[in-house]
Write a structure and sequence with these properties.
Blueprint (H helix, E strand, L loop, with lengths): L1 H24 L19 H11 L6 E4 L15 E2 L2 E2 L2 E3 L7 H13 L6 E6 L8 H5 L7 H6 L1 H9 L5 H8 L3 H13 L33 H15 L3 E6 L4 H9 L2 H9 L4 E3 L21 H11 L12 E3 L4 H12 L1
Parallel strand pairs: 1-4, 1-5, 5-6, 6-7
Antiparallel strand pairs: 2-3, 7-8
Helix pairs in contact: 3-9, 11-13
């Protein structure tokens, strides 16, 4: 019996070593959410940031939500005061964030005692096809709410992630720049490259679209319903909500239009008013204003902020035009003419 027990212990040693290594390397940083490490792997920002905010409920009262693109809204152009209340901003950008994710985040904040005063939400072609369930099935995108439902299951899945030696090397060699990015992450939710607001000058070749899904045309699609519910939630809780569409790079935008993006915008306009940055213009047709085929640079982020915080609402055909159910048809005619 003792020999059998000893053999069993010896067999379990590799298992515990594997799990220990997985925990330490922590590819998605979920076990080290209070002190992330900067590595080549992407973090699970939804879980890390949500838990960080609710464990510090008085530190922030204004939030930016959306996909990874809204990470390029720099703090420089944000509103500093609302109704005589100082705003303390945190950028909740997380990969492939969709409207339902954003709705659940605000719900969690309110249920956890966070005094939310203002919310900015960025939507785009990702919002017209991506769903909460598709994100919950991905390790990088799994929501905090999945942790809240079943913490043991949540962490078990991450313990089974295969340790990556390249990430292990990054963990062991954190330098001053990494530590600076960690500091910025907890101060505002982004890293250094997301803060440079200088106008880009280097000419770059247009990149191909990264691909996108299609809008099924259903006005009861999860993303549309989530925006409706988010607007209602904010109104009930006295939260100032402003929504904008991301300026999508020409190649990605053209594919999105072919897959129903205009129908998506029309459906959105029936639920909420928003600032439109979609279309073909001097920014979206010039690669120098983008990091890649998905992410605009902070210089564009400053222009977005200038528009959505301006007292004067721009016309529908301008970059940042204010869109309602009354002028959506005019906007779409304008955008359709551009495509021709």
């Amino acid at each position: 019996m003792k020999k059998l027990f000893l053999k069993l212990c010896l067999c379990l040693i590799p298992v515990f070593l594997y799990l220990g290594l997985s925990y330490y390397i922590d590819v998605f940083n979920v076990f080290h959410y209070r002190n992330i490490r900067i590595t080549e792997a992407a973090k699970n920002d939804n879980y890390i940031k949500t838990r960080y905010v609710i464990e510090n409920p008085t530190r922030f009262n204004a939030f930016i939500l959306g996909s990874s693109r809204v990470g390029n809204l720099p703090p420089d152009g944000l509103l500093q005061e609302l109704d005589d209340v100082s705003l303390s901003w945190y950028n909740m950008t997380y990969p492939m964030g969709c409207p339902r994710d954003n709705l659940e985040t605000v719900k969690t904040f309110l249920a956890s005692g966070v005094d939310v005063k203002m919310v900015i939400v960025g939507i785009d072609e990702i919002s017209m096809y991506n769903t909460y369930s598709s994100n919950s099935g991905e390790m990088i995108e799994k929501q905090y709410q999945e942790y809240a439902k079943n913490p043991a299951r949540f962490f078990y899945d991450y313990l089974l992630v295969r340790p990556q030696m390249s990430v292990f090397k990054d963990v062991l060699t954190q330098d001053d720049e990494d530590r600076d990015n960690v500091r910025l992450f907890y101060e505002y939710g982004v890293e250094k490259r997301n803060l440079s607001i200088e106008e880009p000058t280097e000419e770059r070749k247009m990149e191909s679209s990264l691909g996108c899904g299609a809008f099924n045309g259903d006005e009861e699609f999860e993303g549309i319903c989530a925006l409706r519910d988010l607007a209602s939630l904010c109104e009930q809780n006295g939260i100032e909500l402003r929504v904008f569409t991301s300026p999508i790079l020409q190649t990605t935008y053209t594919e999105a239009v072919s897959k129903g993006y205009f129908d998506f915008l029309r459906a959105v306009s029936r639920e909420i008013e928003f600032y439109n940055f979609s279309g073909l213009n001097k920014y979206t047709t010039d690669m120098k204003y983008y990091f890649d085929a998905s992410h605009y640079k902070p210089y564009i982020g400053m222009i977005i902020e200038d528009s959505i915080f301006s007292d004067e609402k721009k016309e529908y055909h301008e970059f940042g035009g204010y869109i309602t159910n009354e002028n959506i048809d005019s906007l779409l005619m304008y955008l359709e003419d551009q495509m021709k």
